[in-house]
Amino acid sequence: MAKERIGIMGGTFNPIHLGHIAMAQAAIKAGSLDRVLFLPDGQPPHKSGIAPAEHRWRMVCAAIAPYKRMEPSRMELDRTGTTYTFDTLTALRELYPKASLFYIIGADTLMQLHTWHRWQEVLTLCTFLVCPRDDLTPGEEFRQERRRLQEMGARFVMVDMKPVDVSSTAIREALPSDEPIGHFDPAVQEYIGLTGLYGLSPRVPEADDWMPRLFADLTGRRFAHTLGVAWSARHLALVHGEDAYKAEAAALLHDCAKCLPLKDMQRIAADAKITQDRSVLESGALLHAPVGAWMAEHVYGVTDPEILSAIAAHTTGKPGMSGLDMVVNIADTIEPGRESYPLLSRIREASERSLREAMLLCLSGTVEHVEKSGRFLNTGTLQTLTWLCGHIAETGGGSETAVTNIHHAAKGG
Ligand code: ATP
């Protein structure tokens, strides 16, 4: 059997950015890697003033969640004392004795290798995959240093990739402006804004307390999705004059019950007398919304009825739903991490103009999806549709065609 080829992305990830992701992607290709481990360091010897380790860990997990071959590792994070790459590589060699190890670094790091603890031994423990870094395009000094290290036994492979002009430092400097930042995952930016890292004031002060539980209860992908929904919910709230704090708080907790086993959701629903509707009780895809609202109240301590309503209504909507309910429901559909499909761009466009129109399109997407998969449309969704069509007809707004199509679908036509 061929030896496994493992890439190692060590870094402070303070915070992780898309330059790191691009490096890992290019290294996977250049080194034919089976997987890349992301190892945020606990206490790096060269840096001070970094965000707490658990925050950096969660941001790394969220950022790499969409990529199949990328895995987070707590190896460096959980080690007490200063983090040394020498110890990490020694431990990884013990853990994966049959694998080939590839340490992925930026060109700037190659110039620093000679300052690392036990660096001459480090050179022999792995092959280095070296990624170009914007203004640090290898010049004579770089080539000399590379040659010197190679003569001492180092193995370097230069990775072919377009340099990505970004650094964690530049991101930390740009954060206070509150604008979207280039080469930066919105989910990670959202995490920072919610919790108030890097000197920002937290937009949802409770988020810091909620995060450990929420993160533990969700898969990496679900956690990343949740942050994306909070990002979109805030944007929509600001565009449409809804309460941005409530929108972000509701979005953050909207899927807090989603990864529970169905049996546990059903037990909570029975104990708390949440619903008698069998079609809801038998479907985790529907039941997690009202159970999530119950958990938001009883586990996370939310008391605001508008936030709880938005969580409960995020799947089927509800007749008479509020602007905030729509914001969270639509944000769930359009968050930046959603894979593209034809209706998605239309919903995104509509959401900038009118919440009701976007909501109608979201429901229309649900109708289409349910019809295609040969299932019955849930009564709650139908009731929302009927209410929304009537509401739009009465008050005006929304696209005529969309309303007609939905009426047609709602009647089972
Ligand atoms: P900071 O600005 O805080 O020093 P950073 O952006 O360099 O942070 P680190 O987490 O320290 O990020 O970097 C981990 C590794 O990724 C290092 O080897 C670094 O050289 C490399 N790296 C980071 N960003 C890039 C980039 N844009 N292009 C190439 N390499 C990069």
What would you note in describing this structure?
This protein folds into two domains: 5-168, Rossmann fold; 203-410, Hypothetical protein af1432, CATH 1.10.3210.10. 44% of the residues are buried. Residues 409-413 have low confidence and may be disordered. The chain has helices spanning 18-30, 53-64, 85-95, 107-110, 119-125, 140-151, 168-174, 186-195, 207-217, 220-240, 244-253, 262-271, 278-281, 284-298, 305-312, 323-334, 342-353, 355-372, 379-395, 400-410, and strands at residues 5-11, 35-40, 70-72, 100-106, 127-131, 155-158. The chain has a six-stranded parallel sheet, sandwiched between helices. The protein is built from 20 helices and six strands. The structure holds adenosine-5'-triphosphate. Adenosine-5'-triphosphate (ATP) binds next to α1, β4, α4 and α7. Adenosine-5'-triphosphate binds next to α1, β4, α4 and α7.
